[in-house]
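yo, EAL domain-containing protein is done. seq:
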Amino acid sequence: AKQKGRNNYQFFTSCMHDAIANRLTLEKYLRKAVELNEMELFYQPKVCLETGRIMGMEALLRWNHPKLKLISPTEFIPIAEETGMILALGEWALVEACRQTKSWQEAGLPFLRVAVNLSPNQFHQPDLPEQIRWILEDTGLDPQWLELEITENILMDKTADTLNTLQQLKSIGVCISLDDFGTGYSSFSYLKGFPIDCLKIDRTFIQDIPRSPKDANIASAMIRLARNLNMIVVAEGVETKEQLAFLQNHQCHVAQGYIFSEPLSVSAFENLIEKGRYR
Ligand code: C2E
Ligand code: CA
Ligand code: CA
Ligand code: CA
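structure:
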């Protein structure tokens, strides 16, 4: 038994070693990723449930490393956040999403609103509103076509600064969405105190509908709450017809998820929006 214990221990340390080495490798490659053109944005449609029309899309980062292949943002975003690299990466994503959206508009495709995720680190940069302003000016995208997705954890700290930043962003004319709603440190006072346009119900509340009556109740309560506060309500991670029917019955405005489409490359997304609708 002792022998086995020792082997397990060795196995454990060698795994730890691998994990640390792996992380350092990722970190080293990540530093170069933007300049080496390895980052790409994929786009996932957001669909209006009343009309079946695509009304916007979420831009999601993809990293194609020549040796490591496709690396998921759930792996590299946390590293980018801890190392501060998220600032450069996030700026790249903002510029690229605005540039692409403007270029689709100029190509005669339907006008869509692009949503870009902001990390807490980015949000708390004092020059964020200034940065958004110059990016819109540089790319020529009208502010109404840009949406910023923030998580409720951003709203938790530094209330006065946070409110000030949100008000500055609103005065530029962009939309603010509260992402992953219900999973962080939620508080109704956020909804009352901050200028939020859209509420995105997290996938974890959608995935077990209709099997879980609890989740169904929570989701329908969130929809009602958002509607009563005059916010647009978006369900994320919608995968099945049953979920879609439920959301339609409960008057959710917008849905996003594999039932419509996975996040798509630029060319695949172009093909999709040329059609423009799902029904
Ligand atoms: P998120 O903002 O909550 O994005 C939604 C995630 O759910 C995406 O994962 C998307 O591909 C996935 N998804 C969409 N529909 C479905 C569905 O029907 N079922 C399931 N199971 N999943 C679905 P992805 O692209 O891997 O991104 C993961 C997270 O990485 C994002 O979560 C976001 O927090 C972060 N992220 C991605 N791009 C950026 C970025 O440009 N900046 C920042 N700060 N974070 C980003
Ligand atoms: Ca998001
Ligand atoms: Ca989300
Ligand atoms: Ca999520």
